[in-house]
Design a protein that fits this description.
254 residues, alpha/beta, Undecaprenyl pyrophosphate synthetase, 41% helix, 13% strand, globular, disordered N terminus, binds 3-methylbut-3-enyl trihydrogen diphosphate, binds magnesium ion
């Protein structure tokens, strides 16, 4: 099995360039609402607006892949009313936005374990992906009922189902096509809003060498300007992937 996309852990991207792939943990919706004496769910509603702004900014800046964490495998632990509000918000947002996304040449993908979602939501997800599958502008990936550990375990199980003989010995290249984000380069920049400095089981495999950016700004207050700040921070970093600074400055990519 070949791996057509070079791992970002092997090739050093041009730091001055716009990150090709940005991954975002959209956190702080509940606190944003609480500060305004609103129910938590109003923060989620406003969060959809932030996502719209960030998608627009990514298209303008020329980001190729935007991957956002919308619902984690752990978020089922929340109160039932909040979970069901999030499900219906997801459903409404999909139905309302998909035609616009298609017009804007956005390819929509959803990653995560869909088995717990309603048949109606599963169908909407499938329809949205099918409609936008051949678009070649921004790829927007929504992680829903996603967990990095789930992703890894699922990939191993699917690989072994297809190639049982690999149980003896397998390589990263064997596993790679079975991981959720196998058709995208690894994220260059990770953003977490809302002040927490943790990864919360998001893309554990793919974030191996991603540059991390944390901001106290709550997700419903995040916009294109905040995104530009995160990108400027990224552009001031030096990505070394294990090498020395001197090697990197000599552009030794070997
Ligand atoms: C992130 O905001 C959205 C989801 C997890 C669905 P939160 O709902 O976690 O907001 P805070 O962290 O409680 O403020
Ligand atoms: C992470 O946010 C998941 C999403 C943004 C969807 P949480 O608010 O659920 O994260 P923890 O549990 O506080 O780390
Ligand atoms: Mg949170």
């Amino acid at each position: 099995m070949s791996n057509l996309i070079p791992s970002s852990t092997r090739t050093i991207p041009d730091i001055a360039a716009v990150p090709r792939h940005i991954a975002v943990i959209m956190d702080g919706n509940g606190r944003w609402a609480k500060q305004r004496f609103l129910p938590r769910v109003m923060g989620h509603k406003q969060g959809v607006e932030s996502l719209r702004k960030v998608v627009k900014a990514c298209r303008e800046i020329g980001v190729e892949y935007l991957t956002v964490f919308a619902f984690s495998s752990e978020n089922w632990r929340r109160p039932e009313e909040e979970v069901s509000f999030l499900m219906s918000l997801f459903m409404k947002a999909l139905e309302r936005e998909v035609t616009k996304m298609h017009k804007n040449n956005i390819r929509l993908k959803i990653i995560g374990d869909r088995s717990r979602f309603s048949d109606q939501l599963k169908q909407s997800m499938q329809d949205a992906e099918t409609l936008t599958a051949h678009n070649d502008g921004l790829t927007l990936t929504i992680a829903a009922n996603y967990g990095g550990r789930w992703d890894f375990m699922n990939a191993v199980q699917c690989m072994l189902r297809d190639y049982p003989q690999l149980v003896q010995n397998f390589t990263e290249a064997d596993l790679q096509p079975y991981l959720s984000m196998s058709d995208a380069p690894e994220p260059d920049l990770f953003i977490r809003t809302g002040g927490e400095q943790r990864v919360s089981n998001f893309m554990l495999w793919q974030l191996a060498y991603t540059e991390l950016y944390f901001t106290d700004t709550l997700w419903p207050a995040f916009d294109g300007k905040e995104l530009t700040k995160a990108i400027s921070s990224y552009q001031s970093r030096e990505r070394r992937f294990g090498r020395t600074s001197e090697q990197v400055q000599g552009k030794a990519n070997a």
